Structures are given as structure tokens and as C-alpha cells.
């Protein structure tokens, strides 16, 4: 008889197209096999002879630098044997020298990159492209990130485009954003971040720990993470936060240089974190809150200081109200918490406050915010304050040469409005405020608030500024347990609106409406101011003020105009690098009753649109032309115009320098597109100039075979 020839492997086929289709990973632009945990995938092993009963064959999966069995980082799987750490392997069929194997990883296996080797007797075969990427699996019922709804998974895991909602509560608008989690090097960048996080293998099993680590690594603070934040208005040494239209360029650049990419503000952090979480397989959405409190002491109160003209003062405020703030919700079971807190968890990578010594935030159960269970990890007090604080207005007056503070109003319903995300399967805004808080004034809201207040001890009502040596003028009135909207004796009510469209280069025409709902004759002193401010609430310029005394009889109202000439603001508008909003603040005092009321509204400039011209459908790999047209309908020249365009699966990020566009002039740019992926694709365009930062648009196209 011939001596037994030793069994050797001659090749391994990872059956990429079949496996990735079944695992919903066929979108990843990657050489290697990408699969999700807890779900079988197949590999075909070719041998130098037929497999016999006595042969020893095992698949070895190793993760990390130096895989060891006793550390759990090396798994040795033999067909038909009992499982190993929850992994199993079986022979599907043998056909001569071919052997088809099915591998099922554990539904709580550590996510990351595994090296596959095949061992036969004493021989070890190392296939080329033998690295397998293992991701979280929202399609697997035993995975902590399991999500039942197919439509939701299509949106929160597989959709690589979307919107981030910005602006102000008075006018919300959508900023298209390309998440691009399937683009080249994006998955590798996420794997690099996982390695950089130094999470243990056990921690890599848990989507909660992974999402907390990613919230820390997406900002550059502490750990040389992905994006460097900058709110200074000076972006000369990098890219202005306004100039990004997606996460792809950022993550690719970071992966190439391993250095933080300059610069980001909150929507950039949220856009990138959303890409990272979707890329790793955790369902994720961008969440925008309008009038979000950034409260530095968790005392559930934000103090706003005004001068006697009604203009907001930057210098005194430690805490602030941002016109909007964007974070992310990720979907998972919280096995570390009591029952009832599964589902959406808030995480935030904008570096605002340290948590356990690092700039990271969450996961905080959204239900804990709604129920007032703010003792639960992680950072739930901070998230609760962002959406539930009160806003208190103080006027600073000089009395005998000293600053004295006079309280002119408290708003209890002004913070955490219009909490928004993109709707599932539709290009529209969905309001999810009800997931974060009960209806204002409802019994549930009162109970939730009492519960939260039992964990957060709000301080008494004194101004928090460093200059507040004048506390005695206020008396020691502490906050009631459940604050109520102040009801004035005269039934005083204020409304702020714009009476003409707010086009840059035109006068800003606004109005403050004073209403009285109690019979009698009333004298109202009205102070109004108009300022330009950043979305962080920081004032950039004072544009004008009005002071009027008006007389109202009985149930009546009066509209007081507030008009700002173009010269008063155009210079500031052209010199700032950020998008600014128009802030109008009104203070009304009723002489007869000493009632005081304050109201503020932020409004956004309105811009002419960009139009995109292209066919509605195109065939795979067949070129088509896409044209971008913009007519400057404003009566100012737009200087140094740049058009930024990107189409995932169609063309890479491209910039057109357009120079100056005079009033009435039309700009047209064309790009030749070659679609490389099937399905519905989107093209996103953004126009940036000295005067205007925020004109963007998008258009969809269906790519067919």
C-alpha cells in the first residue's frame, strides 16, 4: 500500500458574492469577506485528496496581534464538534477534493478583523485575503442590536445618505449628508478606531461599550481621534466645518494620515459617528435638538444676560443655549441596566464635557431621559439637562456704578424643542420629541420631572455669572419643584416674526407683536434688539435696537416693526466663516402691574436654490451628464464661490472654483458621471461663498442593469 499522503489545503474560496448578499454586506467596497455575527456563512476548502474519516481538519480564527486560545482570541473549530465560545462549524457537502463548510459565529462574538487559517494534521494553510471582518448583526434575534423592522434596518443600517437637521426652531432646514459607510477605506478606518480604543475582547462583544468608545474617538480630544472641533471662526489651517458634505472624505483622510482632520462642529461629529456606527452594524440615527441647553453645572437652568437695550451679552454667560445641537441615537438591548431601557440610546461625540475623564457621552437610554431616571449610566443627567433645562433672563443695569441683576422672565418650555431625525424610508423630517419627553404640562411630565429633580438638586435662583456679588437684590427665592410658565396679570404675550423674506443684501424686516388678553388700559414698555449669532448662541454683531412705549386698550395687539438696513450687517456676514442666524430679543414691561416678559427668536437667512439637471435613471457603467445651475437672485455679488459635489457610487467628491457671481448672473457646471452601483443613488451639491455658507441640494437617480 502507498504511504498515507498528508492532507494539505490547496485553496480556500470565501464565496464572497453569496455570503455578502445573505449578510447584507454586499455594499462594502472591500477586498475581503465582510459578515455579521450569529449568522452562518460558507467557505469552500480545496484539498490535495479526498477527506477521510481519520483526517484532522480545523478552521482557526484569530483576532488581534497575538491570538491565544486561553485568552479567547484564538478559536479552533472542528467540524461536527460541540461549539467553541458559541461558534460552530459543519460540513455542508463533500465533493471529491472539495469540501463546503458552514461557519456560524456567536451572536455575541467580539467584532473586528479575524485571520482565518486552515489546519490539517501538522500543516497550516494561510489563504490570501484571509482576513474576515465580523460586524454586529441587527438581523440576528440573539444579537444585542437586533431590530425587528426591515424598513428600519434599511434606513438605520444600510442607508448611506441622509439629512442632518439644522437652523433654528423658528425655521428648521435639512442639510443633506453622505454617510458613505460602504465606501473604500471607511470600514478599515472603523477597524483602526476599534484597535485604537484598546477595548478588551469582552468589551468588543458589547455594542454599548463600543458605541461609548466611538463617541470618544470621533473627536480629537484626549486620543487623537477623527475630527478636531473648532468654534473660533478661524479655519485657515483646515477645512471650515461648513464645507463638508459627508463623512467619506474625513474618514479616508484620517485613515491615511492617522491624524485628526480639521475642523468640525456638532453636525460633523454626529455625521461621522453615524457613519462609524452604521458601518460597524449598529442601527444609528442623527438626532437634532433645537434650543439645546449646554449647562455647565447640571443645575437645569441656563442664565441669559441682557443689557438695558435688550442685547444679549456674551461675556457673562458660562452656560449657553445652542440654536440646535446634533447627537446620535444607537439601537441596542441594555443588559447592564434594569428592564425597560432597551431601544434607542443617545451618544454624543461633540466634545463638550468630560465623562469619566474623557470627552465621551453615552450610551444614555432615551427612555431614562423621558422617565426622569437620570441616575442611569451613562451621562443621563447631562442629556436630560440638554432637553429639559429652564431659561432664565436677567437684565444687567448699573446702579451706583455697580452691576445689578434684575430677573425679567423664566421660560420653562423653551429648551429641547422639535427633536428631529430623518423619517424611515422617506426624505422628510420626523419629530421624535415624544420619545425624549412627555407632552409639556401633562401629568406624566410632572412626575418625570419630580423624579429627575430628586437626583439633580437644582440650586436656588441666583445668577451664576462670576460677577454676581449682588445676590441680595434678588432675595433667596428658590425654584419650585415643578416650574410653571409664568402667567402675567395683564395676560401679556409676545410674538416675533419676519414680515419680508430674509434675503442677504436686503433690509431685514421683522416685527414684534405685543398682545394683551385682559380688559383695561395698559402701558407697555417694549425693548427690542437684533443681533447676528452663531448656532452656539454666541453673539457676533449688534445690528440695532428699538425702545417704544405703547398703549393698549383691553383685548388687543400691536405690531411694532424692527428694520435693519443691509449696511448694518453685510460686512459682518461677508467676514465670518460660519453660518450666522438673526437673533431677535424682546423685553416687555407692563407699567401698571410691573409684569415682565422676555421672548427671543432665531431666524435664518433665505437663499436662492441650486438646480440639478440629470436623467431620472441610468444604466450601470454607462456615462451620463449632470449639470448644476445657480442663478444669483440676490442684489449682492457672491464672492469666491465654490461648488462642492459628491455622488456615492457615481463620482468622488469634486470642487468647482466659481469666482464671483454678480447679481442676476447664472452659474453652470457639468460633471460626467459613471455609475458603479445599482439602486437609488443621490447626488449632493453645496455652494459656498464669502457671503453665504449654506446653500445645498440633492437629487436622486435610479441605476439599473
Give a quick rundown of the structure:
The chain is mostly beta strands. Helices cover 15% and strands 40% of the residues.
Describe the structure.
The chain is mostly beta strands and 705 residues long. The chain folds into 4 domains: 9-135, Immunoglobulin-like, CATH 2.60.40; 152-455, Transglutaminase-like (Coagulation Factor XIII, Chain A, domain 2), CATH 3.90.260.10; 492-604, Immunoglobulin-like; 610-703, Immunoglobulins (Immunoglobulin-like, Sandwich). Helices cover 15% and strands 40% of the residues. It contains 11 helices and 38 strands. Strands 2, 4, 5, 8, 9 and 10 form a 6-stranded mixed beta sheet that branches. The protein has a 6-stranded antiparallel beta sheet with strand order 19-18-17-15-22-23, sandwiched between helices. The chain is elongated. Its cofactor is Ca(2+). It is an enzyme of class 2 (transferase). Ca(2+) binds at residues 388, 390, 440, 445. Residues 258-351 form the Transglutaminase-like domain.
Rg from Cα:
30 Å
- Beta-strand level of the residues, as a percent range? 35-45%
Task: Give the CATH architecture of the largest domain.
Answer: Alpha-Beta Complex
- The CATH topology assignment of the largest domain is Coagulation Factor XIII, Chain A, domain 2
Domain Transglutaminase-like: 258-351
InterPro entries: Ig-like_fold, Ig_E-set, Papain-like_cys_pep_sf, Transglutaminase, Transglutaminase-like, Transglutaminase-like_sf, Transglutaminase_animal, Transglutaminase_AS
Family: Belongs to the transglutaminase superfamily. Transglutaminase family.
EC number: 2.3.2.13
Amino acid at each position: 500500500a502507498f504511504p498515507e499522503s498528508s492532507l494539505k489545503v490547496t485553496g480556500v474560496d470565501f464565496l464572497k458574492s453569496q455570503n455578502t448578499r445573505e449578510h447584507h454586506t454586499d455594499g462594502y467596497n472591500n477586498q475581503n469577506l465582510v459578515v455579521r455575527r450569529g449568522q452562518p456563512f460558507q467557505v469552500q476548502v480545496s484539498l490535495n485528496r479526498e477527506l477521510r474519516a481519520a483526517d484532522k481538519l480545523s478552521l482557526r480564527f484569530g483576532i488581534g496581534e497575538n491570538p491565544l486560545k486561553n485568552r479567547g482570541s484564538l478559536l479552533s473549530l472542528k467540524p461536527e464538534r460541540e461549539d467553541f465560545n458559541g461558534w460552530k462549524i459543519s460540513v455542508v457537502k463533500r465533493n471529491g477534493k472539495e469540501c463546503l463548510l458552514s461557519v456560524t459565529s456567536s451572536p455575541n462574538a467580539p467584532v473586528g478583523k479575524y485571520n482565518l487559517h486552515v489546519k490539517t494534521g501538522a500543516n497550516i494553510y494561510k489563504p490570501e485575503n484571509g482576513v474576515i471582518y465580523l460586524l454586529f448583526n441587527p438581523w440576528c434575534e440573539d444579537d444585542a442590536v437586533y431590530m425587528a423592522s426591515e424598513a428600519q434596518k434599511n434606513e438605520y443600517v444600510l442607508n448611506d445618505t441622509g439629512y442632518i437637521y439644522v437652523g433654528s426652531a423658528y425655521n428648521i432646514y435639512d442639510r443633506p449628508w453622505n454617510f458613505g459607510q460602504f465606501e473604500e477605506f471607511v470600514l478599515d478606518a472603523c477597524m483602526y478606531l476599534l484597535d485604537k480604543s484598546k477595548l478588551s475582547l469582552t468589551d468588543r462583544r458589547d455594542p454599548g461599550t463600543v458605541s461609548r468608545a466611538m463617541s470618544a474617538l470621533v473627536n480629537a480630544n484626549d486620543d487623537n481621534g477623527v475630527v478636531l472641533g473648532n468654534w473660533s471662526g478661524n479655519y485657515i489651517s483646515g477645512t471650515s466645518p461648513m464645507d463638508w458634505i459627508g463623512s467619506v472624505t474625513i474618514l479616508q483622510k484620517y485613515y491615511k494620515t492617522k491624524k485628526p482632520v480639521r475642523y468640525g462642529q456638532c453636525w460633523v461629529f454626529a455625521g461621522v459617528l453615524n457613519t462609524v456606527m452604521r458601518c460597524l452594524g449598529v442601527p444609528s440615527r442623527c438626532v437634532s435638538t433645537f434650543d439645546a441647553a449646554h449647562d455647565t453645572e447640571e443645575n437645569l437652568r441656563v442664565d441669559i444676560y441682557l443689557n438695558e437695550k435688550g442685547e444679549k451679552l456674551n461675556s457673562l454667560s458660562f452656560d449657553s443655549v445652542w440654536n440646535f445641537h446634533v447627537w446620535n441615537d444607537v439601537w441596542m438591548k441594555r443588559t447592564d441596566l434594569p428592564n425597560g431601557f432597551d431601544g434607542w440610546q443617545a451618544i454624543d461625540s461633540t466634545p463638550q464635557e468630560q465623562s469619566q475623564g474623557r470627552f465621551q457621552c453615552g450610551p444614555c437610554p432615551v427612555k431614562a431621559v423621558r422617565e426622569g431616571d437620570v441616575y442611569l449610566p451613562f451621562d443621563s443627567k447631562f442629556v436630560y439637562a440638554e432637553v429639559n433645562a429652564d431659561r432664565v433672563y436677567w437684565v444687567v443695569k448699573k446702579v451706583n456704578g455697580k452691576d445689578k441683576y434684575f430677573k425679567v422672565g423664566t421660560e420653562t418650555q423653551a429648551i429641547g424643542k422639535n427633536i428631529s431625525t430623518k423619517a424611515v424610508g422617506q426624505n422628510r423630517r420626523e419629530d421624535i420629541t415624544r420619545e425624549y419627553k412627555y407632552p409639556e404640562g401633562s401629568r406624566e411630565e410632572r412626575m418625570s420631572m419630580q423624579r429627575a429633580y430628586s437626583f439633580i438638586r437644582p440650586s436656588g435662583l441666583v445668577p451664576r455669572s462670576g460677577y454676581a456679588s449682588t445676590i441680595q437684590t434678588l432675595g433667596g427665592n428658590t425654584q419650585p419643584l415643578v416650574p410653571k410658565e409664568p402667567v402675567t396679570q395683564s395676560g401679556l404675550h409676545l410674538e416675533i416674526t419676519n414680515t419680508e423674506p430674509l434675503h442677504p443684501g436686503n433690509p431685514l424686516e421683522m416685527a414684534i407683536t405685543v398682545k394683551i388678553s385682559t380688559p383695561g388700559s395698559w402701558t407697555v414698555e417694549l425693548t427690542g434688539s437684533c443681533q447676528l449669532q452663531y448656532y452656539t448662541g454666541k453673539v457676533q454683531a449688534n445690528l440695532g435696537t428699538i425702545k417704544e412705549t405703547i398703549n393698549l386698550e383691553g383685548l388687543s395687539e400691536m405690531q411694532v416693526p424692527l428694520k435693519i438696513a443691509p449696511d448694518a450687517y453685510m460686512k459682518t456676514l461677508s467676514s465670518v466663516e460660519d453660518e450666522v442666524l438673526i437673533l431677535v430679543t424682546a423685553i416687555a414691561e407692563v407699567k401698571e402691574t410691573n409684569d415682565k416678559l422676555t421672548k427671543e427668536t432665531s431666524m435664518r437667512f433665505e437663499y436662492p436654490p441650486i438646480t440639478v439637471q440629470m436623467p431620472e435613471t441610468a444604466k450601470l457603467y454607462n456615462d451620463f451628464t449632470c449639470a448644476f445651475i445657480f442663478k444669483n437672485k440676490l442684489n449682492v455679488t457672491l464672492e469666491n464661490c465654490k461648488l462642492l459635489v459628491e455622488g456615492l457610487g457615481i463620482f468622488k467628491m469634486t470642487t468647482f472654483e466659481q469666482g464671483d457671481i454678480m447679481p442676476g448672473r447664472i452659474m453652470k457646471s457639468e460633471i460626467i458621471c459613471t455609475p458603479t452601483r445599482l439602486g437609488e443613488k443621490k447626488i449632493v451639491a453645496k455652494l459656498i461663498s464669502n457671503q453665504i455658507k449654506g446653500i445645498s441640494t440633492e437629487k436622486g437617480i435610479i441605476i439599473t442593469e
